[in-house]
Amino acid sequence: MDYDVLIIGSGPAGQHAAWQAARMGKRAAIIERKPKIGGAGLQTGTIPSKAMREVAYLLTRSGGMRQALAPDSRNRHGLLTDAVRRKEAVIAQQESVILQRLLRHGVALIPGEASFVDAHTLQVVDASGNTRQISADVIILASGSRPRRPANVPFDKKTVLDSTSILNLRHLPESLLVVGGGVIACEFVSIFSALGVQISVVDSHAQLLTYLSEDVVGVLADSFLGMGVTFHMQERVAEIRREGYGTLTILESGKQIRADAVLYAQGREPNSGGLNLTMAGVSSKEGWIDVNQHFQTSVPHIFAVGDLIGRPALASTGMEQGRTAVLFAFGGETFVAAENFPMAVYTIPEISYVGKTEKEIQQENIPYVVGRAYFKDSARGQIIGDAQGLLKLIVDARNEKLLGVHIVGEQASELIHIGQLVMNLHGTVRDLVSNVFNYPTLAECYKLAALDCTHQLDKQKSALSS
Known about the structure:
Layout (H helix, E strand, L loop, with lengths): L2 E6 L3 H12 L4 E5 L6 H5 L2 H15 L4 H5 L3 H32 L3 E4 L1 E6 L2 E5 L5 E11 L3 E3 L12 E2 L13 E5 L3 H12 L3 E6 L10 H13 L3 E4 L3 E7 L2 E6 L4 E4 L1 E4 L3 E3 L13 E2 L2 E2 L12 E3 L10 H17 L11 E3 L5 E5 L2 H6 L4 E7 L4 H6 L5 E7 L5 E7 L3 H13 L4 H6 L10 H21 L1
Parallel strand pairs: 1-2, 1-6, 2-3, 6-19, 8-15, 9-10, 9-15, 10-11
Antiparallel strand pairs: 4-5, 5-6, 7-16, 12-13, 13-14, 17-18, 20-21, 21-24, 22-23, 23-24
């Protein structure tokens, strides 16, 4: 074999698989079809949108600047230029870091598009059309996903956009219709609303981010309304048309919405179509690849990780999946990641959570209490002016262990790890009460929410004993 392991895709899952293999002394290579490494995580998804979000976030913190700048198109377009410049600088820096790390570990980088010839052999076609065959004992599929682009939506990268092409805008539209109410849609609503664009949202559900707690999403929705966002909930798109320099979207209800541009952000598709999986005997369903707990496909020496295997499709979980697959492939070692992993939505304000929602707990008939702490009641929250932030603990009334932590507000994606660690170490809500937090900090909200919980738990115990 040419290599011990071949990895298709250089995104977060592929990178971490390669680093783990190299640390084990294996001959590892990454095959990447794009001209730049990093996958969607670095080039077209996670990092660029978060970098642009930071410019938008700073704008919302600058006390009325958004309202002052909104009427002035030159200033508004300058803001977009700043956001794009920041995005591109971060991508370039991260690309350099990743490249150096791979080379330092001795990982080979092979440019080209890979497809199976047989279960151990890949054909790689580079940009010039040159073809070669490469073999390996172990193959890891980490080719990621892309925005879903239905054939009846007239994408043109100018007025009808997906979550990739919107990152390349050079002029701000006056108005933008966002189709979808999921993570990607909400993140772009935050960015472009903060940049002074008039936003409308169409979604088939009754609430944004439908799988999250209603009270947490309610804070985000109120923030959006305060930024002038218009909602068309429980509506479906019948047709999107390009008209002149703008768009016309017709809903199934008959409503018509005109906007300078449309962002279609409803789901993603796996990048598995060109892999020729049947030649290797790998089974899949609509392009999504089935794996077991070790991330093995139907062919034991072929693994799949990251977006290719579906939910949760996070960069953080993809990294662990890549490491886990390599550890099992070469040592039979079963790496068990922590049970509770965090999720974050980089909106303005941020949302992050770990564990279960109240609805899920109610369906399981688990007795529970909820403790809440509002950022406005903490000294740090008052200092930074976060009047909307909320930290919510859901606690099992039987054993006082945390069942879920839900946060909306500044630094939510950072704060969540405190609750995650307590859950993974099987701690109780009283561990949060007994812990000492820096003052003033937002982390102190954990103690405030925990005290709220223990007060309820103590009242329940007192009522039962009497």
